[in-house]
TrEMBL record:
It comes from the Bacteria. InterPro entries: Methyltransf_11, SAM-dependent_MTases_sf. Residues 45-134 form the Methyltransferase type domain. The keyword Transmembrane helix does not apply. Pfam families: Methyltransf_11. GO terms for molecular function: S-adenosylmethionine-dependent methyltransferase activity. One of its GO terms (biological process) is methylation. This is Conserved domain protein. The keyword Cell membrane does not apply. Gene3D superfamilies: Vaccinia Virus protein VP39.
Length: 262
């Protein structure tokens, strides 16, 4: 269970140059992936909302937001950050206290690394999400894993105790929970964490939102087909029809993706 010390540790890290740099790039990735989701009048549940940093971003983006976390200390921090702008619930990801299709969208950001049954948590997310699910995890196929995630006996580090995920593993989990759904994935923070700081050279090392399985932060948008994403007006051209920013793939039983943009 995450406690008040964990909350303070995370928020202290978020205020460091490396933490602020990482969160900025993670936010860019999430913004990129949800760019086609309609916002106004659409509800979003953030499972494992933590201290509410990304929940606040989703509220600022126009969603009607609800946060859920198993830690009372994390919920207290999120309530302090958002106040009446969000609803909050104490609960666990593998037994959500909501009806089927209760929300348009559900997010699971850095949750599946810290649960015993990732498939059960994903199944619950798909159950209560009417239109789509956004999942983000720490990537085992990244330089960041080598420096911060490799398990060490006796280590008290939350990151070294976590189960970091890889792209093939995540695609398999998504296929189990929502076979045939459209999936779009991207990563950020591809260089070692020593480059996570402001500066021209450092930004060049980490500038891309890439179709590259080796970034430290891996995110997947899963669209159920009940509300496929649209291209936002700001991303359209002046003279041509709107362009699809993130062409989705369909994950079938074989696990291979099929481009839907053609």
């Amino acid at each position: 269970m995450w406690n008040a010390e964990d909350v303070k540790s995370f928020l202290d890290w978020a205020d460091t140059p490396a933490g602020a740099f990482a969160l900025r790039h993670e936010r860019r990735l999430l913004q990129h992936l949800v760019s086609g989701w309609p916002r106004r009048g659409h509800s979003l549940l953030d499972v494992g909302c933590g201290p509410g940093i990304f929940l606040e971003y989703f509220w600022e983006s126009g969603f009607d937001v609800t946060g859920l976390d198993a830690s009372p200390d994390m919920l207290a921090a999120a309530r302090s950050r958002l106040g009446p702008r969000a609803d909050f619930h104490l609960g666990v990801g593998d037994h959500l206290p909501f009806e089927d299709n209760a929300f348009d969208y559900v997010t699971l950001l850095n949750v599946l690394e810290f649960v015993d049954d990732a498939a059960a948590v994903l199944a619950e997310a798909f159950r209560v999400a009417a239109r789509g699910v956004l999942v983000a995890v720490l990537n085992r196929w990244s330089p960041y894993y080598l420096s911060h995630g490799v398990p060490m006996p006796g280590s008290s580090s939350r990151l070294r105790q976590a189960r970091w995920r890889s792209l093939p593993e995540m695609l398999r989990l998504v296929r189990q929970g929502c076979g045939g759904c459209a999936v779009t994935w991207r990563t950020v923070l591809h260089a070692p964490s020593c480059t996570w700081r402001e500066g021209t050279l450092f930004n060049l090392c980490n500038r891309g939102i890439a179709l590259n399985p080796f970034g430290a932060y891996l995110a997947l948008r899963v669209d159920t087909g009940r509300g496929l994403p649209v291209t936002p007006l700001l991303l359209t051209t002046r003279k041509t029809a709107p362009m699809r920013v993130c062409p989705p793939t369909v994950v079938g039983r074989t696990g291979h993706g099929r481009d839907l943009s053609s």
